[in-house]
Amino acid sequence: MTDLERRIDQGTGREPADIVLKGGRFFDLVTGEIVASDIAICDDRIVGTCEGYEGREEIDVTGRIVVPGFIDTHLHIESSLVTPHEFDRCVLPHGVTTAICDPHEIANVLGEDGIRFFLDSAERTIMDIRVQLSSCVPATHLETSGADLPVEKLLPFRHHPKVIGLAEFMNFPGVIHKDPGCMAKLEAFQGGHIDGHAPLLSGRDLNGYLSAGIRTDHECTSAEEALEKIRKGMHILIREGSVSKDLLALMPLFTERLSPFIALCTDDRNPLDIAEQGHLDHMIRTAIAHGRAPLAVYRAASISAAKAFGLHDRGLIAPGWRADLVVIDTLEDCRAEMVFSAGRRVTDALFAGRKPVEPVGLDSVRAREVKASHFAVPVTEGETPVIGVLPGKIITEHRRFRLPSKGNQTAVDLSQDIIKVAVIERHGKNGNHANGFVQGFGLKRGAIASTVGHDSHNICVVGVDEDDMAFAANRLGEIRGGFVVVEGGRVTGEIALPVAGLMSLEPFEVVRDTLHRLRQAALALGATLEEPFLQLAFLPLPVIPHLKISDRGMVDVDKFALIG
């Protein structure tokens, strides 16, 4: 008997189903009703609802509600600081049965090898991990990345069964002004899915960007911005990560009318926040607590997300659909008590049966040794450019201040919360080193450093003391990448991230507990940011006070506070 014939026989009741969830109710995302019903499963498919069924295995879910598995529509697994296998084990129990990732971070370090690592991992995880091919490697010509991925290097992956399409196209100036490299990638992926990334883009420039076949955006920070993009055919991915938190600002989008055009994503979220708050389940709880209709919220978490990315086999509880199911207590609390991924009940034994994937990029930190003198900034007349950190956002401000001097060097100014920042090339290509100043970390002493530095992932270090900054930067080479906190020439906290300098080889529980200790070490230096390490990771991004595109498709270089 074929698999198809078995499904038909189990759906009609001619033979017992493989699994039956009995005594519960399911949330119908078409009508908005909560329906009392058995749910019959055959292999990886739902084969029966709205009827009574017998099963070879029967599971009592009396008093519980069953909802479709959640879909994270845009994330960088690397930002969880664990490998895809550990991400699977960390997030799937929260009900996230599909994750659409962009391996942009590891691709900027390792190129094709990084993408292969993710595709190999995706074929072995329990959760369905889908991969978007990184479109912007390198992300900018203003910084040195570890790799270059022109269209010729992406095409061999295009038809991989885990690949959906082209990942977030961040170079929107290059699209609008028809940069040849951008055009080659866009032409190659026409007819497939192309993710967008266009913060604050509007008007005719937005029209031109969308005319390239780009259909999604996760960078909206206001309902007004999102509504313009929805009117112009975009699917808006509402983001709530560990640094970028847009959920509250985009609450007005959660209506039954707009729910087919919105979805949820985390972009960048670490295991400590997942443990303390949750993942997409946290977004669902928060939206409903703010008065949003559960039907709109759960649609965004599943069926609307599936349709946006052409995953037409999931997102509803109905016969013939993929059996990605989450058994919860109530719609409001959204606490996953049981999860099914492709018909398999998620258990520790299920995770234990996965085949491991050999780690890559274990020697990716090749920075030259630095000394305290390398962080010197000569005195200049007038005001000094300073990066202004905005808590809860990855965007920063370009500020200017008169800073004190020490000898012939510009000094930090703790009274204005201004300390030093540096980016150090770590891919072993040119040894570039750039210094600047940053406001908003709150540090009163010491230094913190990281090999997670978007988007090229060079070493980024901030600090009050140049000796501590040098110690922290050099320590990263010794542990093969990660985060380091230093005070008085002594390491007070660190986490090793040897996989491309981005991910740990430890279980997510170890990473979670280590991150907690790192927070405490940063607080001991006076840090005031909720997420000092992820905020540090985004500091190397260019500072653009006004997103005004010139005729050449670039932003004037003198607008940047720091160029690594």
Automatic annotation (TrEMBL):
Which keywords describe this protein according to UniProt?
Answer: Hydrolase, Manganese
Specify the Adenine deaminase C-terminal domain's residue ranges: 394-560
Q: Which GO terms describe its molecular function?
A: adenine deaminase activity
What InterPro entries does the annotation carry? Adenine_deam, Adenine_deam_C, Amidohydro-rel, Metal-dep_hydrolase_composite, Metal_Hydrolase
The answer to whether UniProt assigns keyword Cell membrane to this entry is no
Report the enzyme's class at the first EC level.
hydrolase
Cofactors: Mn(2+)
Could you tell me which Gene3D superfamilies the record lists for this protein? Metal-dependent hydrolases (3.20.20.140), Urease, subunit C, domain 1 (2.30.40.10)
Q: Where is the Amidohydrolase-related domain?
A: 65-349
Enzymatic reactions? adenine + H2O + H(+) = hypoxanthine + NH4(+)
Q: Which GO terms describe its biological process?
A: adenine catabolic process
Flavoprotein: is it a keyword of this entry?
Answer: no
Per the UniProt entry, the Enzyme Commission number(s) are 3.5.4.2
Q: Which family would the database say this protein is a member of?
A: Belongs to the metallo-dependent hydrolases superfamily. Adenine deaminase family.
Record PANTHER family: ADENINE DEAMINASE, N-ACETYLGLUCOSAMINE-6-PHOSPHATE DEACETYLASE
> What is this protein identified as?
Adenine deaminase
